[in-house]
Amino acid sequence: MSLLQTLKNDQMRMIPEKYKSIPVSEMEERIREIKNKFGEKLLIPGHHYQKDEIIQFADITGDSLQLAQASAENRKAEHIVFCGVHFMAETADMLTANHQKVYLPDMRAGCSMADMADIKQTERAWEKLQKIFGDTIIPLTYVNSTAAIKAFVGKNGGATVTSSNAKEIVKWALSQKERILFLPDQHLGRNTAFDLDISLEKMAVWDQNTEKLEYEGEDNLKVLLWKGHCSVHEKFTVKNIEYIRTSKPDMSILVHPECTHEVVVKSDYAGSTKYIIDMLEKAPAGSKWAIGTEMNLVNRLIQAHPDKEVISLNPYMCPCLTMNRIDLAHLLWSLEELDQNGTGVNQIIVGEDVTRNAVKALDRMLSIR
């Protein structure tokens, strides 16, 4: 379900006004009380991009798939209040057991990248691309996609990918079929394929609005990229890199592969959120780093590594706005509803057919070594 569809859902509940005037200290105390009351029956996963005010209450932190898997493994947790965005909570619901319920404190916490791949547009694109290339394409989708897109990929023999395992999955896919369709992030797809020595001339972008392929290279295309992107990571620019190279020539530049190809190739290192965190952990004291990823995480890395100079590659970068919709007030509201009524607000429920096919795509990814 896209964010737009979610907002039209009559069952979506908005936070009562009273929560907007509760002092921070009182909200924090109430949250602690409810957490203590529920104990192991309650799990609060917090994505790396969440604000510190949320992360302090997270039982586990990590990336989207890691949190969904950890939720599924924790069978004692009957209630999972997922502090992330909509597609992450969908994945958690698909992987958890029937006795577990997943809630999203604010249904407006969506992902613009995930919403750039609409299922109807994807099905039309698949039909047109099949006519052009025949049965030579296998679909892949970044886990940062809706359950419907994951299900489409699973149904058509493809797999999900993460930013950590994208190379392995793309290699596998190209051993199965001549071409891949990579959804929904063109930059991760392009950067991954380029690292596998596939030239840019063999890549094209499918524009879902014009329903046409955009490319300047040869006709023997290998990689068909969906025209989607992360609105946060696309804000890092070559000019940001040039400024660092001039003003701090001894500083290493480390970026996420959701950044544009031009930014990735001019950086010193590129990798997943875990890769970025691990690089800083292993880096020697006194080393200097400009990080190209979401601002909440960068700020947390700055705090965690006072022995290093860590800055954002783009000092004017804003945090992920949709991720930041989860705040103390929404978390408290969700927990108090759970405490008072036995069920939280905004439960995420993915249908059986979608779940079955989406899990195929996830399982296929996990089986590839």
Description:
There is one protein chain. The chain folds into three domains: 3-110 and 322-350, NadA-like (Rossmann fold); 117-228, Rossmann fold (3-Layer(aba) Sandwich); 233-312, NadA-like (Rossmann fold), CATH 3.40.50.10800. Strands 7-6-8-11-9-10 form a six-stranded mixed sheet, sandwiched between helices. The protein is built from 16 helices and 15 strands. The relative contact order is 0.16. It has helices at 3-8, 24-38, 52-55, 64-73, 86-95, 112-115, 119-133, 147-155, 166-176, 186-195, 238-247, 261-266, 273-282, 295-304, 328-341, 352-367, and strands at residues 42-43, 45-47, 60-62, 79-81, 101-103, 137-142, 159-161, 179-183, 203-207, 212-214, 223-226, 252-255, 269-270, 288-292, 309-312. It is globular and about 60 Å long. With 369 residues, it is an alpha/beta fold. α4 (64-73) packs parallel to α5 (86-95). The model has no long low-confidence stretch (mean pLDDT 94). α14 links the parallel β14 and β15 (309-312).
